[in-house]
Amino acid sequence: MIRSLHISNYALISRIDIDFTDGLNIITGETGAGKSIMLGALNMLFGARADAKVITDTTKKSVIEVEFALEDPAAFDDFFAENDLDADGDRVIMRRELSPNGRSRAFINDSPVTLAQLRSLAIRLVDIHSQHQNLLLADADYQLRIIDSLADNGDLLADYAVAFSDYQCLLKKYSETRDMLLRGRDESDFITYQLEELNGLNLVEGEEAELEAERDRLAAMAGIKAYITEALAPVQGEENALDALENSVDALRELSENISEAEVLSSRLDAALIEIRDIASAIENLDLDYNVDPGRLDEIESRLGKIYSLETKHHVDSADALISLRDKLSHRIEMIDNGDELLASYEADAREAKKKAVMIARRISERRKQCAADFARELREVAEPLGMRNLRCEIALSTSRLNRFGIDQVEFLFAFNKNQQMLPVGLTASGGEISRLMLAVKSIVGKKMNLPSIIFDEIDTGVSGEVASKMGELMQSLSERIQVITITHLPQVAAKGKSHYKVYKQDDELATNTHIRRLTSEERVEELALMLSGSADNQAALAAARSLFD
After folding, report:
1. Torsion sign across C-alpha atoms 289, 290, 295, 297
2. Angle 431-448/140-150 helices, nearest 10 degrees?
3. Is 110 left (phi over 0), alpha (psi -120 to 50) or beta?
4. DSSP element (H, E) containing 536
5. Are 550 and 524 in contact (CB under 8 A)?
6. What is the pLDDT of residue 185?
7. Is the pTM of this model over 0.85?
């Protein structure tokens, strides 16, 4: 149940802190006092869209926090385990913070969480029923959820959701394959031509990058080779510098017989010639090391040219992409060639999946049918004291095509008067009748739901007198199983509460603020007198208020 509520810096609420009790909690207050503001804050806490416009003081963040007391903490172990969160004994604290810049943060037990996680936990802890949700009673999906809740179809529906999803996936696969085969057979000649062209290249993964690297290396070596050749030119060939220098050495030796200096020059030149021969030998070794095959470079350029051409043709940017395309085309040809057999296999899988889904859907349908009559009978019994003595109710279930809910269509049919034909609730019920019906539905469903708290926002709108008192009794009865928090304008309902809280506005020098406080026993009498007569001092109203408590 909700143990405490904190709201700060939210619309007219500067700060409120309130503790709730088990049983029936009543909230009253004049129109515009701020009851709907509190409900809006709770909805935001439980995952509704956040709007920074609600922040009053833009220098601070807005904070909404609720502490829940868990009657059965073990029932939530799966949630905390699946979401990698720490449990905190028999309590859970949910908090949402909204910054002036519009950014919000959510927490469970002080651990940051996503809004999806926040909503997932909230729907297991509290049900907020506001006035506009009365319209849900006319919604077929909502009606089906009511029947499923009462029929305990949760586990079966989870199994069905998996089976139906599998069937949908296989059906989609069959349809896509069939459509592809129809298109493929019309395009098979062109696909075959493209595939043969790609197969003709015999592409290997990573080949393009290797060829480009080798081409760049060979091109660089060709430049080096040119310089080596130029360096070798003076020392190679029939008439090279080495031979000329040897002749010079011989000539100087001949001169040495007549000129003494020539012998020194001959020795010096001979020594230089030895060094030059050694350098020439080293250059020749370099020439061998950088030997380039011109044919290989031409071969690479030709191969890359063919690859680039096909890349341009098929609008891709790599040979690997061409390989992927080749494999896809090969797969398409294979599917076209074996299409009938493949399609038959997919069809068989889809049929089998549908059969499984239908089998589960029929089990769900049987349980719905068994539950529908009991629910209609119980709804009449619960609604009769609420001023609907002539109510007739029928839960009409009919078979539909397989869909995400199973094979059933449901329609709640009602007649509120003896001479009235059975009609859908949206066509026959007044606002007050729908409110009473919804309360009756919630009280019945509440017996089945393992839900700690339910909040009613003026569900008693449009009723008065004895019917209002009966609605209060019904809420009081429901509160014996779960915590009920009710926002009401009816004193007959307010008198049934275990705890009573008043929402009111108060002005200070700078602003108008909404407050809430728990009323004492005497203050409750005065509040009911105010609700009855418009004055808390009216003695007749005070006596009437006391009689409501009696």
Report:
1. positive
2. 30
3. left
4. none
5. no
6. 66
7. no
Per the DSSP assignment, residues forming a β-bridge with 2 are 68
Q: What number of residues does the chain have? A: 550
Instruction: Please state, for a pLDDT cut of 70, what percent of the chain lies above it.
Output: 95
Alpha-carbon distances of 386 from 161, 379, 381, 383, 484, rounded to whole Å? 38, 11, 10, 5, 18
Alpha helix (H) residue ranges in 101-240: 115-122, 140-150, 154-201, 207-232
Tokens linked to 67: 């502490």
Q: Which two tokens stand for residue 284?
A: 């020749």
Q: Are 422 and 394 in contact (CB under 8 A)?
A: yes
pLDDT at 318: 87
Residue 508's Cβ-count burial label (10 Å; 0-12, 13-18, 19+) is exposed
Please give the helix or strand (H or E) that residue 477 lies within, else none: helix 465-478
Q: 């399609």: which residue's tokens?
A: 343
Q: How many whole angstroms separate alpha carbon 106 and alpha carbon 115?
A: 7
Task: Give the list of residues 6+ apart from residue 510 with CB closer than 8 angstroms, or none.
Answer: none
The one-character DSSP state at 59 is: T
Alpha-carbon distance of 26 to 528, in angstroms, equals: 12
Nearest to 45 by CA among 138, 132, 113: 113
State how beta strands 453-457 and 423-424 pair. unpaired
- Residues forming a β-bridge with 68: 2, 92
DSSP 129-159: E-GGGGGGGG-HHHHHHHHHHHTT-HHHHHH
Q: What three-state secondary structure class fits 69?
A: strand
State the residue for tokens 């926090």: 65
Residues 6+ apart with CB under 8 A from 212: 304
CA distance 459 to 437: 10
Question: What pLDDT, in 10s, does the model give residues 234-252?
Answer: 777 666 777 778 788 888 8
Cα distances (Å, whole numbers) of residue 522 to 96, 217, 418, 491: 36, 99, 45, 15
The sign of the torsion formed by the CA atoms of 50, 51, 55, 58 equals positive
The ranges of the chain with pLDDT < 70 are 131-135, 184-189, 222, 237-239, 287-292, 294, 338-339, 449-450
